[in-house]
Design goal:
single chain; alpha/beta; binds adenosine-5'-triphosphate; 6-stranded mixed beta sheet; Rossmann fold
Length: 263
């Protein structure tokens, strides 16, 4: 029997109505993310990856925006929920990590305040209990001296350490879905590999499904199971990572692959 998807996006579109034109940012896309699986949305800048991610999170706010189709998280259509219901789901059932971890954290608050706030938002837990949990979360993402990290401001940490803190916050409540938007793009290559290994370990441990947004097919090969290739708002090709790399059918996919694979 086939496993139920954590996330199911079905015939989903986002159109921006402007005074003299309609921008079809996302145009009738469908894909699934499975528990402990990674589905990658790949494509060049402007193809609609971020608009899709923001729509899943219920954070797409713009004038003149029209959306169609369904986004289901564990069977619940997110498009039918109120803003308050969506807010409760974010952090608890779905979380996000971003490209630029140093800027995604609040620069004027110590790591301790930020991790504890994330815990307190969704869990009834006392001060000392929350601190214990914060220390556990930071060690779980491979930060060797969590007490020292908690006492720092983001600018006192490297990009890789900040991304580990973001991952600790994102996985704090074992979400069903993690949206990772270019999670390693801002990091150097050795740190990239460590962060991907950490994501792989955590999603396997906790059963979290990951929707990965990237333009980097190297990252896709490293961690994804399913791949959707996007161009101008549409999914032009999708399949397992093996199919897409071994037997690309669409000319755009071949072009993307040619740009990263040695000839
Ligand atoms: N608020 C908005 N109003 C009008 N058009 C928008 C808005 N937000 C995004 N777009 C357009 O939607 C399209 C998709 O943008 P999106 O940011 O999702 O691309 P992307 O694939 O994430 O690119 P990148 O990799 O550069 O982030 C682009 O043409 C963009 O200009």
């Amino acid at each position: 029997m086939k496993e139920e998807p954590v996330l199911e996006v079905e015939n989903f579109s986002v159109y921006f109505h402007q005074s003299c034109q309609v921008i079809k940012a996302v145009d009738d896309i469908s894909f699934q993310v499975y528990p402990a699986g990674v589905t990658a949305l790949v494509g060049e800048s402007g193809c609609g990856k971020t608009v899709t991610a923001l729509s899943v999170l219920g954070l797409l706010k713009a004038q003149g925006v029209e959306t169609r189709g369904a986004i289901r998280l564990k069977g619940r259509n997110l498009r039918e929920l109120t803003g308050e219901e969506l807010r409760r789901l974010r952090g608890k059932q779905m979380a996000m990590i971003f490209q630029d971890p140093q800027n995604a954290l609040n620069p004027v608050l110590k790591v301790e305040t930020q991790v504890m706030e994330a815990i307190a938002c969704h869990q009834r837990i006392s001060g000392s209990g929350a601190k214990e949990m914060a220390l556990r979360l930071l060690s779980r993402v491979g930060l060797a001296d969590p007490r020292r990290v908690l006492a720092k401001y983001p600018f006192q940490l490297s990009g890789g350490m900040c991304q580990r803190v973001m991952i600790a916050i994102a996985f704090a409540l074992s979400p069903d879905l993690l949206i990772a938007d270019e999670p390693t793009t801002a990091l150097d290559v050795t740190v990239q590999a460590q962060i991907l290994a950490e994501l792989r370990r955590l999603k396997n441990e906790l059963g979290t499904g990951i929707m990965l947004i990237t333009h980097d097919l190297g990252v896709v090969a490293e961690i994804a199971d399913l791949v959707c290739v996007m161009k101008e708002g549409k999914i032009v090709e999708s399949g397992t990572v093996f199919d897409i790399f071994q037997n690309p059918r669409h000319s755009y996919t071949k072009k993307l692959l040619n740009s990263v694979l040695p000839v």
